[in-house]
């Protein structure tokens, strides 16, 4: 499966489809980035991984994660002040994260797993190339 841009609904009351473009693509790890912010350090990411079974391990290991930078002002300039994550089935939610940002993170996780390319990794064990 080739890596192309994906769209994932955000967590607003009237969900907006956010485009995530591939930044890094390999069968082992694909990183999609929401490029609406100029600085890379402020751009949310969706990370999809895949490790195929091998002679020593008879299990496939698909992975899914979301990195969501928390924006604040540092010396009057927009900068990341913290980062929220979803990895290995666990959320990491900084105290500085607003309710709306928590809604976005949750939506990127739930809606991201429904994207056909990501679902194919998880369900069909078909890595992204």
Keywords summarizing the entry:
2 helices, 7-stranded antiparallel sheet, MS2 Viral Coat Protein, 129 residues, alpha+beta, 7 strands, 42% strand, 18% helix
Q: How are the strands ordered across the major sheet?
A: 1-2-3-4-5-6-7
The CATH top-level class label = Alpha Beta
The CATH topology label is MS2 Viral Coat Protein
* Name given to the CATH architecture: 2-Layer Sandwich
Largest sheet: 7 strands, antiparallel
Q: What gap, in angstroms, lies between the N and C termini? A: 6 Å
Architecture blueprint of SSEs:
Layout: E1 6-9, E2 17-25, E3 29-34, E4 45-51, E5 61-74, E6 77-87, E7 90-92, H1 99-112, H2 116-124
Antiparallel strand pairs: 1-2, 2-3, 3-4, 4-5, 5-6, 6-7
Task: Give an overview in words.
With 129 residues, this protein is an alpha+beta fold. It has one domain: MS2 Viral Coat Protein (2-Layer Sandwich), CATH 3.30.380. The protein is built from 2 helices and 7 strands; from the N terminus they run βββββββαα. The chain has a 7-stranded antiparallel β-sheet, with helices on one face. 19% of the residues are buried.
Briefly summarize what is shown.
With 129 residues, the chain is an alpha+beta fold. It is built from two helices and seven strands, in the order βββββββαα.
């Amino acid at each position: 499966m080739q890596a192309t841009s994906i769209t994932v609904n955000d967590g607003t009351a009237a969900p907006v489809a956010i485009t995530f473009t591939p930044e890094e693509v390999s069968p082992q790890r694909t990183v999609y980035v929401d490029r609406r912010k100029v600085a890379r350090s402020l751009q949310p990411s969706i990370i999809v991984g895949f490790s195929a079974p091998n002679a020593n391990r008879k299990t496939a290991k698909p992975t899914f994660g979301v990195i969501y930078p928390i924006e604040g002002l540092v010396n009057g300039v927009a900068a990341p002040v913290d980062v929220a994550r979803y990895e290995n089935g666990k959320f990491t939610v900084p105290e500085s994260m607003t309710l709306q940002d928590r809604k976005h993170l949750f939506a990127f996780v739930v809606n991201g797993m429904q994207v056909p390319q990501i679902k194919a990794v998880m369900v069909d064990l078909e890595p992204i190339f």
